[in-house]
Specification:
Layout: E1 2-11, E2 14-24, E3 29-33, H1 40-48, E4 55-60, E5 64-67, H2 82-87, H3 93-108, H4 111-130, H5 133-146, H6 151-154, H7 163-176, E6 181-185, H8 193-205, E7 209-213, H9 217-223, E8 226-231, E9 234-239, H10 242-277, H11 282-300, E10 327-336, E11 339-349, E12 354-358, H12 365-373, E13 380-385, E14 391-394, H13 407-412, H14 419-428, H15 444-458, E15 462-466, H16 474-486, E16 490-494, H17 498-504, E17 508-511, E18 516-519, H18 525-530
């Protein structure tokens, strides 16, 4: 169980949450919604214990599983496999690794040393069995399979995996831990259609308490029974799924508007009476003073009405023209240790075209995009940029956003425009009030907007985008689509968002891991859902 009482959360001078009180109890399936930057991710981090609240009290009973939005598995041993990482959730992954190491040493030794190793192996195996090691190992494999982690991937070192693969390994580890409360931040990022369906079924049957942040609206409809809406620092509770929340929110807003209009009409009527009678006879002046008291009371109880929120405005400037072939790659190959990602890949970009790199998770889509963008070097082959080609790269893990550096400084790094113009661009991305904020403290959606702002000021004529819609709210995603429709440069895209890919309308697709290039058609959208 997890309980919040009058919780306050602040980032610098800005108050994100004020006086939040709610309970996540066993069987409660709740979703936390709100616009990008409202404080959802920071609230989840605070509930998980990654930071202390700035006021109020958080009570935690039982075990908590927390999937962070930016799970990078930074501290894992380079040799740890995906299966071992999942097993660490129940403290048996390291035991199995130690057992294998002792077994290998047993085969190389003899005599009394081998006898000592046999006894040590026996103790380790007893501990492994006592912790349910063998059945748990089979269960961990079922969790992995449900989330689309293949048998070969389970034996792969985590550090060699793509961002999407690592994210699924972390989700499997947290679900496998069998905790009393789950705090999940964008759990469907990088999940294909089958894995997403498996996750929904798991969450529907989950007996513990659940609090989830997600822009996956169907997920909020299918797995959630309570919505907590965070906006302007306050949390409002809605019983029901996301669809019910949207209907009820409109009803409540209209009710508040009516009440506010009634209050303002009462104030206007009383103030008119005050002006007429305040200087009159003592009897009328006394009545006017009582009306002043009523006006003060009404003003103190004025119903808050949400203002119409500003919209994100994304517009890529007209780029300088590149040559007819802005980029050509031949014979590309990449491997991580013994894991071969792809071999013999050729890519030719034509000026102004849109290409989608497609394939299943782990097929090498992100790796190919990084190589084309110059962020990573191939083991074989070469990439040649054409005349006047300038490449802007958007990384799915926000590697370009550096903690400890301010938001405005991130634009200064990539643009010589005066600060006045850079501030204006940040305003279009709804980041004007965060100019001096440490970029590492931004929410996932805000980091996405900052990374897109860096692309805008760069004036590139080739854009390479890796999962650019992750963590974006619906309005911001729509703004991004509109901006790409108007963009005159060349676009290379990796995305698992079927609607986004359909809206961008690629000209061609590169199918990984074979690297076959085909003209794009709508039937390929099924592959997007599986990617």
């Amino acid at each position: 169980m997890l309980s919040c009482r009058d919780v306050v959360i602040e980032i610098g001078p800005r108050r994100l949450v004020s006086g939040a009180s709610f309970v996540v109890d066993a069987g409660v399936k709740s979703g936390l919604v709100g616009p990008n930057g409202a404080g959802k991710t920071t609230l989840l981090r605070t509930l998980a214990g990654d930071r202390d609240p700035d006021g109020g009290e958080i009570l935690r009973r039982g075990s908590i599983g927390y999937l962070a939005q930016d799970s990078m598995i930074a501290s894992v041993d380079p040799s740890t496999t995906a299966l071992e990482r999942i097993l660490t959730a129940r403290a048996i992954g390291s035991l199995e690794r130690e057992m294998e190491e002792v077994r290998a040493r047993m085969e190389r030794t003899a005599g009394t040393q081998r006898d000592r190793l046999i006894r040590r192996f026996s103790r380790l195996e007893d501990e492994f069995s006592a912790k349910g090691g063998y059945p748990a190992k089979a269960e961990a494999k079922r969790f992995a399979a449900g989330l689309g982690i293949g048998t070969d991937e389970l034996d792969q070192p985590v550090v060699t995996m793509s961002g999407g693969q690592r994210r699924r390994v972390e989700l499997a580890r947290i679900l496998f831990a069998d905790t009393d409360v789950l705090l999940l931040d964008e759990p469907t990022n990088h999940l294909d259609l089958d894995a997403r369906d498996w996750l929904i079924a798991f969450l529907v049957d989950y007996k513990g308490g659940l609090l989830m942040v997600s822009h996956d609206l169907p997920l909020l409809d299918e797995a959630i029974t309570t919505i907590y809406a965070l906006d302007h620092g306050t949390i409002e509770t809605y019983r029901g799924n996301y669809t019910h929340y949207r209907v009820e929110r409109r009803r409540r807003r209209e009710q508040r508007r009516k009440e506010r209009r009634r209050q303002e009409a009462d104030i206007a009527r009383l103030e008119e009476g005050i002006r007429r009678f305040k200087g009159s006879s003592e009897k009328l002046a006394k009545r006017a003073r009582s009306w002043e008291t009523r006006v003060q009371r009404i003003r103190s109880d004025l119903v808050h009405v949400d203002r119409q929120g500003r919209s994100v405005a994304v517009r890529f400037p007209e780029p300088a023209a590149s040559g007819r072939t802005p980029l050509r790659a031949t014979g590309l190959a990449k491997a991580y240790g013994d894991t071969i990602v792809f071999v013999d890949i050729d890519v030719d970009l034509d000026r102004g075209e849109r290409i989608a790199i497609m394939g299943l998770n782990g097929a090498g889509k992100t790796t190919l995009l990084k190589i084309l963008a110059g962020q990573e070097q191939p083991d074989l082959g070469e990439v040649v940029r054409g005349h006047n080609a300038t490449i802007g790269y958007y990384a799915q893990e926000h590697e370009s956003i550096v903690a400890g550096r301010g938001v405005l400084d991130h634009l200064r790094e990539v643009s010589s425009l005066p600060d006045r113009e850079l501030r204006g661009i940040l305003g279009h991305f709804l980041l004007a009030d965060k100019i001096d904020q440490d970029a590492g403290t931004l929410s996932g959606g805000e980091k996405t907007k900052l990374a897109l702002a860096r692309l805008v000021v760069g004036g590139h004529n080739v854009l390479m985008l890796d999962e650019p819609t992750n963590n974006l709210d619906p309005q911001a995603k729509e703004a991004l689509v509109d901006s790409l429709h108007a963009y005159a440069g060349t676009l290379v895209l990796v995305s698992h968002d079927k609607d986004f890919v359909a809206a961008v309308s690629p000209d061609r697709a590169i199918l990984m891991p074979d690297g076959e290039t085909r003209y794009f058609d709508e039937d390929m959208l099924e592959l997007v859902e599986l990617s």
